[in-house]
Design goal:
single chain, 176 residues, alpha+beta, Jelly Rolls, 4-stranded antiparallel beta sheet, 8 strands, 36% strand
Length: 176
């Protein structure tokens, strides 16, 4: 009696897996992009933050569509200092980043127009109150080019080793 039930369940699971596979064409896929000026900006920011005691956790170039958010899910540890950076296409008119905690409560919101002094870069620091997954959603709006916009995201974590180096440097600088 258990074998017919088990085979029926397996058949249903197989059927659902094939139907979800057939519908996967509607899924937004994240693909990399290649933009020399954005890569140059990312490398500069990376060096600055690494010199400031941060290490890269994740980074990616992403092809984006105007007015569509790209969800990025990352685990974050309680009490750890993080720095998030989003670099949008230089020709876009507006850039926006939202971050949500595990309970879908918005914990960060930043928006910039293309005319802002820092232009196409949004950067913010964040220290989570709990160890949990967070969702980060960058977006850019381009009135002329709707598809194939390049974006770059980076997540950094403050490292203890560099904290010690920074303290040692500050102490040695004090006594000079």
């Amino acid at each position: 009696m258990k074998k017919p039930f088990l085979s029926a369940v397996c058949s249903l699971l197989l059927l659902f897996s094939f139907s979800s596979f057939a519908q996967s064409d509607n899924v937004i896929r994240v693909s990399p992009c290649d933009n020399h000026s954005i890569q140059k900006q990312a490398d500069s920011i990376k060096h600055l933050l690494e010199d400031g005691g941060f290490s890269v956790l994740r980074e990616a170039s992403i092809t984006m569509e105007s007015e569509y958010e790209i969800p990025i899910i990352v685990p974050m540890s309680e009490g750890t200092s993080y720095q998030f950076v989003f670099i949008g296409d230089l020709k876009s008119n507006m850039y926006e980043v939202k971050m949500y905690d595990y309970n879908e409560k918005q914990v960060v919101y930043q928006k910039k127009g293309g005319n802002d002094a820092s232009g196409n870069i949004i950067s913010y620091s964040y220290i989570p109150k709990m160890s949990e997954y967070h969702m980060i959603k960058p977006l850019q709006v381009n009135n002329k080019q709707k598809k194939d916009l390049c974006g770059y995201v980076m997540l950094f974590r403050k490292t203890e080793v560099s904290d010690k180096k920074a303290r040692k440097y500050l102490l040695s600088a004090r006594f000079r």
